[in-house]
Design brief:
Elements (H helix, E strand, L loop, with lengths): L2 E2 L2 E2 L7 H14 L7 E7 L3 E6 L4 E5 L22 E3 L2 E3 L5 E2 L1 H7 L1 E2 L3 H6 L3 E2 L2 E2 L7
Antiparallel strand pairs: 1-2, 3-4, 4-5, 5-9, 6-7, 7-8, 10-11
Length: 134
């Protein structure tokens, strides 16, 4: 295949889309992979507390996600409280899960995890379930 300027010799299509994609790849290459979730605790008001393989604890407010059809069943009954870890991600059923990337990148890092542990609010990577500890 021969390229002339910014268009392809065969198709005549311009190449800016390829250039944008290349920039995106370069951007993504600079980001390390997010760690897996090792444990999760569902909290009241649709909050998830996730402990990651790197030791960080993050809390994600799931309320904005409940409006999406994929997560809507979590708002009914006690399904939300059945969150568990499957292969490094959080799942509720075979059909409902959330990626560790979303939990890590959108979750709120607990400000001082050692302070919470010292007050007994977090034990062995799990919260006592009260929102006051966050």
């Amino acid at each position: 295949m021969k390229f002339t300027g910014t268009s392809s010799w065969r198709t005549g299509h311009s190449l800016p889309a390829v250039r944008r994609r290349t920039r995106l790849i370069h951007c993504v290459e600079g980001i390390a992979m997010t760690p897996d979730v090792v444990s999760v605790t569902p909290l009241r008001e649709y909050q998830l507390e996730a402990v990651f393989a790197n030791g960080e604890i993050r809390v994600l407010d799931m309320r904005p996600y409940l409006g999406y059809p994929a997560f809507a069943p979590l708002a009914e009954g006690g399904l939300f409280m059945k969150a568990h870890v499957v292969l490094g991600t959080v799942a509720w059923t075979d059909e409902i899960d959330i990626s560790p990337d979303t939990l890590y990148l959108c979750g709120r890092l607990l400000p001082d995890q050692n302070t919470h542990r010292a007050h007994g609010e977090i034990k062995d990577g799990k919260s006592n379930g009260t929102m006051e500890s966050i």
